[in-house]
Amino acid sequence: MTSSELRMRFFAAVLIVCVASLLSMARLLEHDVWLKWIHPEPDEVTAFETSLAGIEDMKPAHRVMGYVSEPGYDYQFTQYALAPTAVLSSTMPCSLVGRFPSASNAQHFADQHNLILTRTLKQQFFLFRNQDPQCWR
Amino acid sequence: MLAITAALLPAFLGGLGLVLLLTEFPRKQLMPWVLLLLMTVGSGFGITSVVYFLWRLFSLSPRVLVLMDWAVAACVVAAAILKIRRSKLSATEPALENGINDAPSGLRRILSAVFFLMLTGTIVYLVSATLRHPQGEADAVPIWNLHARFLFRGGANWAAYLTRDLSWTHPDYPLLLPATVARVWTYLGRDPSLVSALIACLFLLSTVGLLVSGLALLKGREEGYLAGMLLLGTPLFVRIGGSQMADLPLSYFLLVPLVLICLYDQSAKPPRGLLILTGLFVGCAAWTKNEGLLFALAILIARFISKKIYSGWWPTIREIGFLLIGMSPCLLLVFYFRTRWAPANDLIGPLQLHMLTARASDITRYALILKEFLLETVRFSRGFVSLPLLAIYLILVRTRIPKSLRAGTLTAWLTYFLMLLGYFFIYIITPHDLAWNLEASLERLYVQLWPMVLFACFLAAKGPRELLQKA
Asked: Domain range holding B132?
């Protein structure tokens, strides 16, 4: 292979790397920064934390609960549990925040799990209270 | 922000002391310092996460934690200063940047400009991702940051999450990342999400910096910048890096040992401490994610084979011995955590021989895994950069490995293939739905290995010095 061929091949390789990398970065910035800046998606976890603000009827030690899966109704809650308490060692927490498409869905969930639907919070979040007296001693 | 910096200070000081204690790099050049400082991030977080875990075991007061952190940092820094004074390093600096100035400076300037442009883009992305998802994304919320909150908020009940009832949070996962985040929260007395986001960014930028500076020292700055551009041009790598999951910290700890092994091979008078430091980073990988345990096994086998090919039995055994010495503290800690505290792993816990045999003899599982591995090879980056593109680069520039880097390069490649093999057989025995398991995890496994692949490829590729000098 001649020296000019070697040089050509090398600069072609470098050019490919530069162009592919820059295009990838440009697309990432377009999709994940620019477009999401224009059309922001709601951040579920932040919404969850916001919804908890100001709640006073939850025991401090039990302030954290979970996030009930949405319309699939399999109730695999605590997927998004945000903070720890000893209460999480049981399968159903004493207080629970879940997100449902409507109040009737939330009530249905409460009936099935022996919970009391105590309050509607912001952004379709609902606060439940476990009726188990063990929780509230 | 000042409080967070103050909380990170003992980690960085301890890390810097440890790296200085165990290495002998030339200190009048830029790149060795860059590499050294980037290793400080991992070694510092490694030390302080272990200290935090020990502190948490006894549930002492936060003041005791501060005292423990600073005591450890002071001891390591004092030992490093003593060692530097004794060895008079400036007189015996190894020339690790040999020949780099031969390369055309115009090309280097262009490549560095493109690299730093991409680095700026990455920082813009990280800021945007943190503003959009301050709590992190995907597994960061229900696993890594949740574990950190248990450690921080749980007090004496910190271990309440270590139960099979909460198997969805993978309570058996090791604690380097959660303990690192929780330690800063403990210093602050509150748990702002900025801390976990900042630590995630540090790991991402350090991984990129390690790849660039490692290759710059071993091959040339042009190769370093090119590999760095490819890494930053991998959208999935940047996305996962900004998501606060443990995949990027693991990726960092998989890359450092390979860089150090190659530096060890290339050094004229390699210090034994470099091997111990390498082992320490391997141990940190096992303390970060379960895949790190597989890595520890893979790199030991890979190094044994490659060293044996290029030298005798005795140097090979001695080297493996030093690596094991370095690995052992973290491996012992992982063993203690897994046997004393953590519930069984969701993949290994429910294993029964007849089920294992049934899965291992099911040919359709092999076919599905192989198919997904091949597909992921092409599509994993979710961008223009991919493994086929890397193959085109190698075909164009061709390969030539310098003699001093042959054992190191072989170690990197063997480690990569052993890791892939390990992942393959873990998928074979997984009790979960295989298709779901592959979809949920395979792309992240590829991302974990991606910096290692780039490093190994650019070690083997001919660089501008070799090509243009010949021309």
From this structure: 2-86+107-470
Q: pLDDT by residue (tens digit) across A88-126?
A: 333 455 666 666 767 887 787 778 777 888 877 766 677
- Contacting residues for B131 by C-beta, under 8 A, at least 6 apart: none
The beta-carbon neighbor of A88 closest among B117, B134, B166 is: B166
The answer to whether B210 touches B38, Cβ cutoff 8 Å, is yes
Task: Return the residue matching tokens 């592919």.
Answer: A20
Classify residue B95: in a domain, yes or no. Answer: no
- Cα pseudo-dihedral B285, B290, B296, B298, rounded to 10: -130
Half-sphere exposure of B420 (CA within 13 A, CB side): 19
Contact B232 A21 (CB under 8 A): yes
Query: Is residue B352 classed exposed, middle or buried when 0-12, 13-18 and 19+ CB atoms within 10 A define those classes?
Result: exposed
Nearest CA in chain A to B222: A14
Domain assignment present for B94: no
pLDDT tens sequence across B185-240 = 999 988 888 999 999 999 999 999 999 999 999 998 999 999 999 999 999 999 99
How does B434-456 read in b/e, with b if 16+ C-beta sit within 10 Å? beebbeebbbbbbbbbbbbbbbb
Q: What's the rounded mean pLDDT across residues B320-335?
A: 95
Q: Per DSSP, what are the bridge partners of residue A116?
A: A129
**Total number of domains in chain B:** 1
Residue B34 lies in a domain: yes
Query: Does the beta carbon of B226 lie under 8 angstroms from any beta carbon of chain A?
Result: yes
What chain B residue is nearest to A43 in terms of C-alpha separation?
Answer: B133
ipTM for the complex shown? 0.85
| A67 min Cα distance to partner chain B (Å) | 10
pTM for this model (two decimals)? 0.86
CB contact under 8 A, A45 and B107: no
Neighbours of B201 (CB within 10 A): 20
- Of residues B45, B362, B96, B80, the one with CA closest to residue B213: B96
**Does any CB of chain A come closer than 8 Å to the CB of residue B471?**
yes
Using a CB-CB distance cutoff of 8 angstroms, which residues of chain A are in contact with residue B117? Answer: 22
Would residue B98 count as lying in a domain?
no
Query: Taking a contact as any Cβ pair under 8 Å apart, which residues of chain B between 91 and 150 contact chain A?
Result: 107, 111, 114, 117-118, 121-122, 124-125, 128-129, 132-135, 141-142, 146, 149-150
